[in-house]
């Protein structure tokens, strides 16, 4: 209503403003036109009758005389032009000089007849009002014309001044109309609570329809206890008479407790009252809480069917919760037994009182299930521990008549609602079956654990506390629950198989036992990752001259590919070690090998390249007490001095294996006897929770408290650093150094003279006699005679002989030549070539290794 009034006021004001503006414009235009006619006529007549006009028109140059005078008059009288023409209409004057001499625009015929003419025309300077006055001789002859005019654009200044006043008056009128409308609108909004006319109409139109169509009964009771209103649902639920409205509630035949509640005026929420055969939920609220009229409003809802529906809905919700929990809580680990236990823990007591999971033995080991293999009880969960069911770990063979036997045979779930009346189940074990029934277990569901076409085992759900037996709906729930668990158990089985294969492969590739040697006391530990085996490896390799090589490596990744790659690298190290190469050269060869492996794998789409490999290689010499190390992207070694101090020697890191093109550097350490060299892989010091520097510092603290033996050191380090669930493999190698004393080593410098060979043989024989190795004197003399003679003849000026008594007798001949002799068969006519053949026959092993100053030819003989 307020909006309509406002619109009407606006329309009235706008009509008045438009009418006033139109009238003003028309009036001003008329007045301006009259004024323009009068002004132009008066100016033209005055100029035409001015003195000297006739003389100027008769003169030789009228323009020169009249143009200045006409312009002066034009400016003085505020007209737009004053034009003087001859009797033929040719201009003598004009405000624009270029128009002088041209034909005058206008009707000059009346003026030539002696009359004054005022007209509105379209002139050369635009629309205008002009007056034309004749200039006459005393005898009445028209000798010229004078015209004065004003253009239309200069007419109407009064309208421009008066129109703003009209607009201001209109704005004031609109403001008054707006203010009045706002006051009326606010008043109406308070009265209608913000509802507009359409909403008010719609509310009243739908009031009765909504009231009588809702599924809840509605009663309005006045302050005196009389029924003011009842909808159709309330009449049906309470069986009210047709004339119930207006009567007192107590006279409607309602139960006394319900009638007392309706007239009490107290609030009530979901109070249940029995009305005939119905359970009604009553909600009552007083209407005078916020200043309303006295009385109350009651709503009635039939909860008879709702109670039954809510019970079924609650059961369905609980079953959905169980299935959701199964998806989250089953399969948290890749352990078959733990996954079976999670199934039992989830189902007890929410679904069953006891749950047993029986799996084939081969499934527990990661293999394919088979019907001929026995089942083993993998899990037993229940509300108590005294239930007389088969215990965990028990091998079970189910008879065909038992529910479990039928489930395994047919692959379908079986429901036994009453166990004491199931002879097929009792035939499994009459004594134990009687104990189970006596204990109170009365109902059973058996469901096969199926993964595709494979039956992994059987799950049994037992009920004892709840008196109702399992039903068909619960059978379906059990099948769904077991189906979800079967996927996780099968995944765990597959992982167990893969893990076992990888562990078996890796164990077969790692050293079975350490080689016998006297240079180092060695202890080691290897721990595979929780998620699967990886590519960590280590080795201890005896070298010539009583030296020992220690190697630790790591191939990035887990699984069979990493383990196989580790085996290839370990085999390569064994082969390269036979060449007696220094650490940096051996790592260079490994780097080339990994590069070739990557090229081969890249050519095969089904294979994966080596994404990263590291290695640390060390050679310990017990005679010199030195250790030469080189590493390729591997963590640095740790060194425990005999006094217990721990340090991490500076060993250049070098790039990881496989990058190629970069050299490796070596570092030589002097190790006192009893020092412990600790080699390890990154799984021991790296963790997602902290940086490697933190891991190294923690390793340092663990080594400072370690015992003196390598075995105690390994145990202390793993106790301090081993995580609960290692995410990476850990390889740990601890070597305590020994040294060969002066009584085990004999050395001589040999002059560059073949006659000196005999003296060397004599000195070696005397030393062997001191060592109690007289039996080896003859063969040793032959070996040294050949090796020293070749060194003097072909090896250069410097020749040095060293004999070492270790697990074997080692003869070494040093010379400054880098040329290595080769073993060959000598022909019958050859004078030489049989010396090395003789050495190879007499020695257990022989070979050549290179040094920065030349080479060493060595031969070993077993010590009796």
From TrEMBL:
SUPFAM superfamilies: ATPase domain of HSP90 chaperone/DNA topoisomerase II/histidine kinase (SSF55874), GAF domain-like (SSF55781), PP2C-like (SSF81606), PYP-like sensor domain (PAS domain) (SSF55785), Sensory domain-like (SSF103190). Residues 517-737 form the PPM-type phosphatase domain. Keywords: ATP-binding, Cell membrane, Hydrolase, Kinase, Membrane, Nucleotide-binding, Phosphoprotein, Transferase, Transmembrane, Transmembrane helix, Two-component regulatory system. The keyword Signal does not apply. The chain crosses the membrane at residues 6-28, 163-184. The keyword Phosphoprotein applies. InterPro entries: Bact_Sigma-Reg, GAF, GAF-like_dom_sf, HATPase_C_sf, HATPase_dom, PAS, PAS-like_dom_sf, PPM-type-like_dom_sf. It is a multi-pass membrane protein. This is SpoIIE family protein phosphatase/ATP-binding protein. It is found in: Cell membrane. Residues 205-271 form the PAS domain. Residues 355-499 form the GAF domain.
């Amino acid at each position: 209503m307020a909006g309509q009034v406002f619109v009407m006021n606006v329309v009235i004001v706008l009509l008045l403003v438009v009418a006033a503006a139109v009238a003003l414009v028309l009036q001003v235009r008329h007045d301006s036109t009259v004024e323009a006619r009068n002004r132009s006529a008066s100016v033209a007549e005055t100029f035409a009758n001015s003195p000297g006009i006739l003389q100027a028109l008769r003169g030789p140059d009228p323009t020169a005389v009249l143009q200045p005078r006409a312009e002066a008059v034009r400016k003085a009288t505020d007209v737009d032009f004053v034009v003087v023409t001859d009797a033929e209409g040719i201009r003598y004057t004009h405000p624009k000089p270029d128009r002088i001499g041209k034909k005058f625009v206008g009707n000059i015929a009346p003026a030539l007849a002696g009359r004054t003419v005022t007209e509105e025309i379209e002139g050369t300077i635009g629309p205008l009002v002009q007056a034309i006055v004749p200039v006459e001789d005393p005898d009445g002859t028209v000798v010229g014309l004078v015209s004065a005019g004003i253009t239309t654009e200069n007419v109407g200044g009064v309208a421009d001044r008066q129109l703003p006043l009209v607009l201001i008056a209109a704005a004031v009128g609109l403001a008054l109309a707006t203010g009045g409308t706002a006051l009326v609108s606010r008043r109406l909004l308070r009265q209608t609570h913000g509802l507009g006319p359409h909403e008010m109409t719609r509310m009243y139109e739908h009031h009765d329809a909504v009231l009588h169509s809702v599924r809840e009964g509605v009663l309005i009771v006045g302050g005196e206890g009389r029924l003011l209103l009842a909808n159709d649902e309330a009449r049906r639920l309470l069986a009210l008479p047709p004339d119930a409205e207006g009567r007192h509630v107590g006279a409607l035949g309602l139960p006394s407790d319900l009638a007392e509640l309706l007239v009490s005026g107290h609030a009530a929420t979901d109070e249940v009252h029995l009305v005939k055969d119905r359970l009604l939920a009553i909600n009552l609220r007083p209407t005078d809480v916020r200043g309303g009229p006295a009385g109350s409003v009651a709503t009635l809802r039939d909860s008879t069917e709702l109670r039954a529906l809510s019970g079924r809905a609650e059961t369905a919700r609980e079953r959905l919760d169980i299935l959701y929990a199964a998806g989250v809580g089953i399969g948290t680990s890749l352990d078959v037994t733990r996954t079976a236990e999670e199934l039992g823990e989830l189902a007890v007591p929410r679904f069953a009182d006891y749950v047993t999971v029986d799996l084939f033995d081969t499934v527990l080991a990661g293999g394919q299930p088979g019907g001929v293999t026995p089942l083993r009880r993998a899990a037993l969960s229940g509300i108590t521990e005294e239930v007389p069911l088969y215990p965990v770990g028990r091998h079970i063979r189910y008879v065909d008549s038992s529910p479990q036997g039928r489930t395994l045979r047919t692959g379908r779930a079986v429901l036994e609602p009453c166990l004491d009346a199931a002879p097929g189940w009792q035939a499994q074990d009459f004594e134990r079956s009687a104990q189970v029934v006596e204990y109170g277990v009365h109902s059973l569901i058996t469901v096969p654990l199926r993964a595709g076409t494979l039956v992994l085992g059987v799950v049994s759900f037992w009920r004892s506390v709840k008196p109702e037996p399992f039903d068909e709906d619960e059978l379906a729930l059990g099948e769904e629950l077991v189906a979800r668990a079967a996927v996780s158990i099968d995944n765990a089985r597959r992982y167990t198989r893969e893990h076992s294969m990888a562990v078996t492969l890796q164990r077969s590739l790692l050293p079975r036992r350490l080689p016998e040697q006297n240079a180092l006391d060695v202890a080691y530990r290897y721990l595979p990752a929780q998620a699967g085996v990886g590519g960590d490896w280590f080795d201890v390799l005896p070298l010539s001259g009583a030296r020992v090589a220690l190697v630790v490596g790591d191939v990035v990744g887990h699984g069979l590919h990493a383990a196989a790659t580790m085996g290839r690298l370990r085999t390569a190290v064994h082969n390269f070690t036979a060449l007696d190469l220094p650490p940096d050269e051996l790592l260079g060869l490994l780097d080339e090998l990994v590069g070739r492996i990557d090229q081969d794998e890249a050519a095969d789409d089904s294979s994966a390249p080596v994404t990263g490999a590291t290695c640390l290689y060390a050679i310990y010499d017990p005679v010199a007490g030195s250790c030469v190390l080189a590493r390729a992207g591997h963590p640095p070694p740790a060194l425990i001095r005999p006094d217990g101090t721990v340090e991490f020697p500076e060993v250049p890191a070098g790039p990881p294996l496989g990058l190629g093109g970069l050299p490796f550097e070596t570092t030589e350490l002097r190790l006192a006897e009893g020092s412990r060299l600790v080699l390890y892989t990154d799984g021991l010091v790296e963790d997602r929770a902290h940086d490697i520097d933190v891991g190294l510092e923690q390793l340092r603290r663990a080594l400072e408290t370690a015992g003196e033996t390598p075995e105690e050191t390994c145990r202390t380090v793993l106790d301090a650093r081993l995580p609960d669930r290692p995410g990476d493999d850990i390889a740990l190698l601890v070597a305590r150094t020994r040294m060969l004393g002066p009584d085990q080593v004999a050395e001589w410098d040999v002059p560059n003279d073949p006659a000196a060979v005999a003296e060397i043989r004599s000195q070696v024989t005397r030393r062997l006699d001191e060592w109690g190795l007289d039996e080896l004197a003859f063969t040793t003399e032959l070996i040294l005679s050949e090796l020293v003679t070749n060194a003097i003849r072909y090896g250069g000026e410097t020749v040095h002989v060293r004999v070492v008594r270790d697990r074997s007798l080692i003869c070494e001949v040093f010379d400054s030549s880098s040329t290595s002799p080769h073993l060959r068969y000598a022909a019958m006519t050859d004078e030489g070539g049989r010396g090395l053949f003789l050495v190879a026959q007499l020695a257990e092993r022989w070979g050549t290794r290179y040094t920065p100053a030349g080479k060493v030819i060595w031969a070993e003989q077993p010590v009796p």
